[in-house]
Sequence to fold (419 residues):
Amino acid sequence: MLSLVRWQRQLSNQLISSAAQMFGGRDQGFSGPELYEIFSRYTDELGSYPREGGAPSRWRIVELGLSYLPFEDQIRVLEEMCCWDGAVRYARPAEKDLDWLRDELAALRSREAGDEPASRHPASIEGAPELSPELVSRAASMFGGRTTGFSGPELYAFFSEYTDELGEYPGSGAPSRWQVVEWGLALLPSEQQIEVLEAMACWKGPMKYGPPAGEDLEWLGTALAESRASLDLSADLSTGPAGAQAARAADLWTSDLHRVKTDELLARLEDQELEYKESARVNVRTKEIDKKVEQAWIKAIAGLWNQEGGVVVIGIVDRSNKVVGVNLDLRHGSLQDEDALRNWITNQLCNHLAEDVAARVKVRLDPIEEKKVIRIDVPRGPEPIFLDDQDFIVRMDNSTRKLTGNSMLRYEKQRWPAN
Fold:
């Protein structure tokens, strides 16, 4: 996309693409002459606006203008556009989009000030992507975008199957998720680039930020197939590390609910794969911590694990599907904040089920109707689990039951024949 770039430090393709949408999109942003005027304060390379016709699209003007600038000026001109208080020919970008871009630019400035390795652009890494820039940019948007895709640690796990160059997930100060996708791909040869994207597209487990749109996945599948054909590569995904990772996920994350967004789940009633709980530890009537309340959602997780997997959502009233959120647990449950609540849930799973169960389930807090609910995605357990090392729990229709004696033995034999 940016064939004119001559500096190693550059904004990522995804950030540039997002900025081009915001300031040169169909129904928002500056006019062509206004964009030429802004960039003329930083470079003469664009020349004068071609008023006689043949001017590039406004989107393309943003991309081209940025491509002529060094890293520091790229940041500076986008900051100027974000703070623009003058006339704009088309609609001003949404404030949430401007806030997002300001945050990204501020993070880049912070990394530059500390001279952190994470600020390197993929073009500075030897072995830059052989896939087309458009494909890489769209893949980064799909799997590391603002509202879709994997978390940073999940993306690091994907790429760690192929390369150690990214290192371990750094936590604070980590690159943005779309940068992780771009940089991870930049470190791989073309065949592995295709393979890891195919594995992401075929992923059947939960995604922290939700799955990409179906039409985007369809486009990506076609683009990857064309790339394989052009590079004369076989399409046997199962032979590579990421393919094996995807295959393992397909075996554990079999429930379709894992790919359904939380707000969309509320259109469903409880069933064999879905359980709602109003609270994690506080009795809604007495407003006191109740061990029976704590045990109820843990039993539900054990039942789903021993069945075919599913989802538990805490902060939802059973039957009515009314959203009440987790404020009750925070106010009366001796927990300081949402992070403390998540940590408490993980500890409960370790104490009452097993540490490997806690490691496999996915716990997160999702905003629904201006409240926060706890979503717990439970895989199809690869081996049986017992509640407190005693009770064998199984999900049956929309309830959770304990099996004992011959019933338990027959069920285990059918559910885990290889064991």
